[in-house]
Amino acid sequence: MITARRTGAALGAEIQGVDLSKDIDDATFRQILDLWHEHEVVFFRDQKLTPAQHVAFSRRFGELELHVRKDCCRPGYHELFVVSNIVEDGKPIGSQDAGLFWHSDLCYLKIPSRGSLFYALEVPHDDSGKPLGDTLFASATAAYDALPAATRQTIAGLKAVQSYKKGYYRDRNGGRRKPLTPEQEAKTPDVEHPIARTHPVTGKKCLFVNEGYTARIAGMPGPDGDALLNDLITHSTKPEFVYRHSWRAGDFLLWDNCLVQHLAIHDYKLPLRRHMERTTLTGTAPF
Asked: Contact, 236 vs 143, CB < 8 A?
């Protein structure tokens, strides 16, 4: 029997009673989908999945994106993006960036991703056995609902400029990354998305700004726009809106990229190994 256990935070629930390696009937899948929309982040413990099973279950939710960095995809599975610090034969097996800042995946594209399905294969631990490499998730709906009525009225109809360049040029050690080529810049032009975004399925309103890629408020230059954006970004990740997920090997976790932003905690390094694999769902244009 499928059940959901809330995390006690503003978002998140553990779904119990499901083995994702088995065939899942339509009624059970619909329950999972509804729980995901309700809780924004859902996860299953102690799963044992092959790459093919990970991809097949992900496809139940819709079309999958193929990541542009093929060098970070699992060999034979272009749908599976590898996030890992492991190096084999002198070459990283995946992306080594565990996350520099709060962000919403691909928010800088005209059509951001719908969500991600993350599978934990190896999780690092400290000497006491405590898991490392947690991920923080912030509910953009809880943040929006907690805004003063006057602020909700102010941002109604406003758009924010989402910029890949803003995130790209932030370095973990405070340095400066190699400049993007004109061709790379042309592929990732700045885009404008509603600050108060509407979820395409549930109709929930959410605060769609983040520290990583939101550069400015469109049509509001100068100190006033900067101050409003900084206030919104700071508000969006207040502790009362955040769930911290402590990973276990075998965890399979889904987050809704419209309703949630996230931040990975980079508190580990080799020889402590971390190996995650992710599929990403194609989304829809924000409105």
From this structure: yes
> 178 near 171, Cβ under 8 Å?
no
- Of residues 200, 198, 228, the one with CA closest to residue 214: 228
Return the pLDDT at 71.
74
Whole-model pTM: value is 0.91
Q: Which residue has the tokens 């492991």?
A: 86
Q: Give the catalytic positions in this structure.
A: 103, 105, 262, 278
219-229: pLDDT as tens digits: 888 899 999 99
Indicate the burial class of 220 (C-beta count within 10 angstroms; 0-12, 13-18, 19 or more): middle
Q: What are phi and psi of 215, to 5 degrees?
A: -90, -40
175 pLDDT more than 70: no
Rg (CA), the chain: 19
> Would you call the peptide bond into 92 cis, given omega within 30 degrees of 0 as the criterion?
no
